[in-house]
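Thread: Newbie trying to understand structure tokens

Hi all, I'm a second-year student working on a class project, and my supervisor (Dr. K.) asked me to get a predicted structure for one chain before our next meeting. I've only ever worked with sequences, so writing a 3D structure as a token string is new to me. If someone could post the tokens and maybe explain what I'm looking at, I'd be very grateful. Here's the chain:
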Amino acid sequence: MKKTLIELKNASKYFKQGNRIIKAVDNVSLKVDQGEFVVIVGASGSGKSTLMQLMGGLDTASSGEVTVEGKNIQKMKEIELAKLRQNTFGFIFQNFNLIPTLTAQENVEAPVIDKDGSKKAYEMLVKVGLADRADHLPNLLSGGEQQRVAIARALINNPDIIFADEPTGNLDSKTGEEIIAILKDLNKKEGKTVVMITHDLDAKKIADKLISIKDGKIS
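---
Reply by user tm_fold:
Sure, no problem. This is what the structure looks like when written as tokens:
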């Protein structure tokens, strides 16, 4: 029986907009098991990114429960959440979020706190096929190369769970396929649990578990 890493129980996230209440995530219950490749699909504004933020401890639920390895992250202090995000989770975003004044290697090294950070960062760049671009600034890298740097950064602390929010959204189809292939290898060959947010319905072909969200609800 596979170990459950993340569980949401009747989790909701509401926002006030004037006199209106916006239900970004509405009474969602789901599980993510160890080693799964989970794909969450939905149109823009469906609530999929908010759902990922709840799962990854980037936001807190308005009601309900979010647990990671059996621990309720709603009750964690910020310092505990920060450690969870640094050591258990790896995040990959659509816009890469690289620091423009740092080289590829320095960007990958940024989350590392031990003295071997530079060596580890280079090893991660080797893993994603960018060793020869280690000393390049982001503006000298293609979109696909920047996303590979972002993946290397997400892997630097050896996380159990990788969250990828529209990782191919700013890439052409061929480059996007290459990024998906890297994520699939991390899942199948290294046993990483991957949670990917996308609006691309073709992504269902690679999912162990497909979650469709509409108007904040799993449909």
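A couple of things are worth pointing out once you decode it. The chain has six helices and ten strands. The radius of gyration is 17 Å. Feel free to ask follow-ups in this thread.
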